[in-house]
Specification:
single chain; elongated; 14% strand; alpha+beta; two-stranded antiparallel sheet
């Protein structure tokens, strides 16, 4: 295999030199594993909240991962427009 060929190991890719495609997956538990313990953030005596991830950026990190994968991004866009946004058959 040519070393200059770049494959995205988080999607479905054409295999160079073959008439085949391969699905690459990532162990999501290792992608979303936090380096710190996630504990509630205390605001005052009666109010606290649970952060989204160790740095409170998990929703943005998930969106970045979705946008990097063309197939997943297209599926998510379709779901948002049709399933939740009263798309196609309004």
């Amino acid at each position: 295999m040519d070393a200059s060929i770049s494959l995205n190991y988080n999607s479905v890719e054409n295999i160079p030199g073959f008439e085949a495609r391969a699905a690459f997956t990532v162990n999501s538990s290792s992608v979303f594993k936090e380096d710190v313990d996630i504990v509630p953030t205390i605001v005052d005596d009666t109010l606290s909240y649970m952060p989204w991830g160790g740095d409170n950026q998990m929703p943005f990190n998930i969106l970045d991962l979705i946008e990097k994968d063309e197939t997943l991004a297209t599926c998510q866009c379709f779901n948002a427009e049709v399933c939740y946004g009263s798309g196609l058959l309004q």
